[in-house]
Amino acid sequence: MLTPPQKQQRVECSRIFLDLCMEDKDVVLARIVPGDETWVHHYEPESKQDSMQWQKKGTPPPKKFKVAQSAGIIMETVFGDSEGILLINYKDKGDSITGNYYASILEQFQEAIKEKRWGKSTKGILLLHDKAPVHECHVAMAAMQKVGFEILPHQTYFQT
What we know:
Elements: H1 4-31, E1 32-42, H2 48-51, E2 72-81, E3 84-92, H3 99-116, H4 120-123, E4 125-128, H5 133-136, H6 138-147, E5 149-151
Parallel strand pairs: 1-4, 4-5
Antiparallel strand pairs: 1-2, 2-3
Helix pairs in contact: 3-6
């Protein structure tokens, strides 16, 4: 159940978004760029040559099971808009995402926007991302100001 302050936060975020949309909804929606991190498992499939076995004539082939172990896991940071993906960045397991790293990603993201959506940067970017500590640290916030991104406020996820 949401507490009164949590409910109030949701109302405020909704009010800000509605006020933005009062001007021109389509322009506001075109400015929104979500960004998020996720873990991605990758696999190395066995080739047909690797899976071949010698068999005596007339014996049935061995049964194959579709169990595949993950070859590894990586962290993927993705930014995209209504037209598609703008930037994907990968980081190996064990490497942590710091404020400096996220600031460098924001700079790469700004360059990707200039390359792929050159008109979008003139309208202003509304960055929509979660409230992870690395997104809200001083280094990341300074980088957002430097590249000229606005943060679209949204409610924090609350588990019930």
